[in-house]
Amino acid sequence: MAGYRLHEVLLAPARPTAQPARLVGGVILTVAGFMAMNVMFYQILQQTPLWDELRPAFSDGTDYRAIWIMLGNFALLLSALGIAMQMVHNRPLLALLGPRKLFLFDARRVLRRVMPLFLLVFLIPSPAGLAPDWNMALAQWLILVPFTLPLILLQVGTEELLFRGYLQTHLAARFRSPLVWMVLPSGLFAYLHYDPETFGPNAVAMAGLTGLFALAAADLTARAGNLGPAVALHFVNNVFAILITGMDGYWDGLALFTLPFDPSDVETVRQGLMLEALVILCGWLAARIAIRR
């Protein structure tokens, strides 16, 4: 596809070790390594005085310290992926980002386009009864922000390296069809966000929304030939979801504002998902304009 000609910048270095057996082995090694390190991490955490206090917040994200720990835990997944890249593909982890200068250049361009868009959407007045409420004092929030931003970057960077940098690139280096290299990683990304216990009847729609974002990130990666646009779009999306607004009682431990409903409010959440889908589509279009060569 002509629009994806720069994808080859990522595919060419991956092609010598893109055999399906190696990819499966790399995934198994990544998952096994992460699970082993994760078990040890939480065993250590359980020995600390904070465990009993924070344990409930690991499921609902109502304590900022619990969110910090969960975001920081992505360092273990990143380490496991790095080990798999070296052992299975004999390549450094950062090679998955694409050319460094191009990565930084495209990331900056997308940030300049997408950040104002998300801010504009946030500033649009909400319907009566759905306006966000203050969740914490601005001064307290400003203290938390500098510690949270690097952790969000760690989270989104790890996910993009794994799903777009590793899975997408190595599949595309072997298979020409986007149904393989674009849809399969995006479907897996959506499946891992399927949470019927929290979202009930909206669980499929929530997973679908996540899959839509993954398809947008996959498209941007293939068009740009690096992970910069996908990381930038993902970063802005998660900054607003974690630091700006959260649902009441669900991942609101770091949010400046909370929306007056929780995941159990099926109809309201469903309406919110429709709005989020539109925002993702607009963000994707803005990013495509930003990286237009």
Summarize it.
With 293 residues, the protein is mostly helical. 71% of the residues lie in helices and 3% in strands. The protein has a three-stranded mixed beta sheet.
Main beta-sheet strand count, sense and barrel state: 3 strands, mixed
Could you estimate the helical fraction of the residues in percent?
Answer: over 70%
Radius of gyration (CA) equals 19 Å
Choose one word for the global shape: globular
Q: What's the average pLDDT?
A: 95
Strand coverage percent: under 5%
| Helix/sheet category | mainly alpha
H/E topology pattern: HHHHHHHEHHHHHHEEH
Low-confidence runs of at least 5 consecutive residues = none
Q: Cα distance, first to last residue?
A: 15 Å
Strand order of the largest sheet: 1-3-2
- How many strands appear in the DSSP assignment? 3
Number of helices: 14
Q: What does this protein structure show overall?
A:
By secondary structure, the chain is an all-alpha fold. The protein has helices at residues 8-14, 20-45, 51-54, 57-60, 64-72, 74-89, 100-123, 138-172, 178-181, 183-192, 196-199, 203-224, 228-244, 266-290, and strands spanning 133-134, 245-247, 257-259. The chain has a three-stranded mixed β-sheet with strand order 1-3-2. Helix 7 (100-123) packs parallel to helix 13 and helix 12 (203-224) runs antiparallel to helix 13. The chain is globular and about 55 Å long.
